[in-house]
């Protein structure tokens, strides 16, 4: 992680209690969690939302998930993070829910054809008709 990235990540962990951390900063179980975290930090740095706005949206997403039966054991934290990110970028007009769904479906298609351990690459045919 570069120095500016590390600084932004540490600022996020201070502003948003609940982020899984160790002595070096945020902790991720899978690469996609780090990517989701980095996207949110970047969008915050570009002024799309404030940390208080993000924290309120994330808390709302976690509450909804708990009401729907999420046991809140910590293993779904970044799933809530990603859902919050998707909701905020749609609410802010950066993209639409339909566009997000189109890419999610394409990603699933690409993942299905990709051998385990290989990088997933989107191709035009992943987007279907």
From TrEMBL:
It holds the Pfam family NHase_beta_N. Residues 19-106 form the Nitrile hydratase beta subunit-like N-terminal domain. Signal peptide: none annotated. SUPFAM superfamilies: Electron transport accessory proteins (SSF50090). InterPro entries: CN_hydtase_beta-like_N, CN_hydtase_beta_C, Elect_transpt_acc-like_dom_sf, Nitrile_Hydratase_acc_put. NCBIfam families: nitrile_acc. This is Nitrile hydratase accessory protein. It comes from Bradyrhizobium denitrificans. The lineage of its organism: Bacteria, Pseudomonadati, Pseudomonadota, Alphaproteobacteria, Hyphomicrobiales.
């Amino acid at each position: 992680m570069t120095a500016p990235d590390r600084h932004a990540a540490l600022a996020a962990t201070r502003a948003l209690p609940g982020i899984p951390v160790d002595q070096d900063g945020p902790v991720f179980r899978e690469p996609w969690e780090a990517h989701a975290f980095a996207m949110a930090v970047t969008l915050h740095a570009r002024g799309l939302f404030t940390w208080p706005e993000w924290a309120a949206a994330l808390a709302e997403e976690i509450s909804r998930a708990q009401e729907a039966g999420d046991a809140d054991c910590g293993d779904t934290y970044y799933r809530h993070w990603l859902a919050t990110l998707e909701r905020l970028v749609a609410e802010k007009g950066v993209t639409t829910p339909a566009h997000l769904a189109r890419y999610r479906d394409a990603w699933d298609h690409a993942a299905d054809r990709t051998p385990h351990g290989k990088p997933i690459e989107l191709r035009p045919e992943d987007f279907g008709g």
